[in-house]
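#struct-help
A.M.: can someone run this one for me? Single chain, 341 residues.
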Amino acid sequence: MPDIKVLVAGANPVMRMRLVKAIRSNAGLRFIGEASDLPETYTRAEALEPDVVLIARELTLPGEFTLMKALFRALNSHWITIDHRSTGVANAGRPNAGNDGALPAIDTALPPDEICRQIIAAGRLEPRQIVPGNRVPLPVAALQPGKIILIGSSTGGVDALLAVLSALPADCPPVALVQHTGQSFSESLIRLLDRRCAVNVVAARDGMDIHPGLVCAAAGSPGHLRLKPGRPLRASLEAGPLISGHMPSVDALFRSAVPFASQVVAVLLTGMGRDGAEGLLDLRRAGAVTIGQDQATSVVYGMPRAAWELGAVQHQVGLGEIAATVLRACAVKSEERRVIS
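D.P.: on it. Structure tokens below:
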């Protein structure tokens, strides 16, 4: 059985040192790195793909930890909180389990053998992969030229994006997306999506061409992602005030595509608030195909709910069916107005 790879994360260097020493004392464990804050933990985990992450309790409290948990699920990494005092039971994550499991927290005051025993127990939990969306059995030739896919997501969006993008073929229509996240997490998130998907996922850059097989992703970018029509289609990354409370904003992306809405298939995924709802309505009124994630599969049914209540969503479907619905829409000629199902 291969060694269990362990990443240690926490602001206290003394605590990290004690844990690293314990890990190195056990032949079945392999220390692969450490981090002192949440953004560094995200970057190191994405790059090193640990089996187990020991993470200090204080790093699990910020709202951004939801992004960390999504990353852990994507990597099949288990996580356990660590503390300097005995606290009984604390949260420990099991990949894609729906809710956090409960395992004993690791108290750094415990003997090294007991610390290692708990790490090994976590490392031997059965991994569970994120289930991708259902692929559509369509030959690439069936996809209509000129189609454009737009995606907006927020809270819970990492899991949702992985499910949708991993089900798209390598030469699918061009994709532009906005994911609400902090700048510190942007590069690692885009690398993760690119590694897990057949499509090429890159960070949005001002003036870049957007072509089939490419996903242009604005996640924590310093400007709003907008599309400029033409041959080729180009991205525009523009600084400015917050739109719908966000930078980048899903509404800004969606509204930029209204002039060529008949070519657009737009998707609004899980997220808190209303960003994207008004823009999706504008797109639907202009002739785009619009899709919203349903309540049952949304981590937060905020953005999709707002769009649904506005009448902006033509097709409300579960996460596992979104990629299939998107590709079917991309196989329909713009002038055809039949139901996609």
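A.M.: thanks! The CA atoms of residues 268 and 292 lie 5 Å apart.
D.P.: also worth noting: The longest strand covers residues 29-35.
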